[in-house]
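Title: Prediction job returns without error message
Component: structure pipeline
Severity: low
Priority: P3
Assignee: unassigned

Description:
Job completed but the reporter wants confirmation the result is attached to the right record. Sequence as submitted:
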Amino acid sequence: AAALTTHKIKLNQTFMSGQITIDGSTIHDWNWWGWGKLTFLGALEKSSNVGFATIATRLGWPDLIKYMKRFGFLKPTGIGLPNEADSIIFSPQNRGPVQLATSGFGQGIAVTPLQQMAAIGAIANGGTLYRPYVVSSITDPSTGKVIEKVGPHVVRQHVVPESVANTVRQAMIDDVNAPAGIDFSGRINGYEVAGKTGTAQVPKPGGGYYSNRYIVSFIGYAPGWDPKIEVYVTVKRPKAPLGSTWGSTIAAPTARAIMKFCLQYEHIMPRGVSTPSSAAAIPSSDRTTYEQMPTFTGQTVTAAKALAKRDSLGLSVIGSGKVVDGQWPAASTEVTSGTTVYLSTAAVGGGAMNVTMPNLVGAPMRTAGEILAALGLNMNPVGNGFVGQQSVPPGTPIAKGSTVTLTFSPNPPAVITKASGKAGG
């Protein structure tokens, strides 16, 4: 985008792939021998290191830094979450011609996933960079009044001209949809996915790179004609046979599955299908069935079980009372068929102000928090990831309004207990 904006390249211009020598250092394409003469659009489709080194060299350090800044790569996004990291780029005294070339294909520098998402979002948005956010609003639980509302915030308009953003968007669509391209595994029929894969070597502590360790990724958005969903998947040191550890073989299929699910969840029809009634055009194997969560609160446990069975929902009853006094997910929430609903009942002998503590070990943080909220309990989280320990044992009566401390770890408990002590990807 930067090179097109500054007129340093045109997509149909060509270069010789395979290898290039810059300031005495030789840079090779990932397949070592290249593909002969390629256009710069072909460099995107083939993931040519030589192509992007050539683009960076033509662009030069001043313009590269200028557009890294414009796309938001030189400072945290300001998403509002604690401990947001920043990018790592070459210092001014180390910005030589070789570092410029390797920066062109992402080696020797690092940006955060959030920076990456925001920057690619600027391409999808026609050149407008937005600040990402997680919480849409904060509501006072006692009054129901919205205390703070968060919405899209424009960081920078015209990062690049809209015509350039649209050109790059189409190039990303071509990259995923070209049958001969290496990113074809990210394609979803009818949606014009725009995307790009990445495969990076893992640096050694003392310098250089491991020959058998990689970080693979895919970033993309859909539909191409009106972007609504953006997905970024990265996998560190995938455990796959050498020769198949690529972004296109590992990250892209996963991103495709996530994007497909999100498109269906948002009821976004493929091109040529204008109404939900036409969803039969999507193969049944690719469709996900959604339904509204019924109202369980106020019903007897016996009636709730019958209702869950009727609607093909899983059921977990917390407490030993006879009447449901809380549920999660909430009534009318749109869920997939087979979703488990958690129902709370008053604990035996505990009265209406007591509930029974559920077993939350293994639950992700969001699920654990919502279950506790449904029970009228507060969460004190320690760490991130999945519940490993809970301060109140399962089955214990606890008064509503109490605080439960949950200790989280990055991996589910089942993974932790099997750990061998070796580093894993």
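Comment from assignee: result matches the submitted record. The chain has eleven helices and 21 strands.
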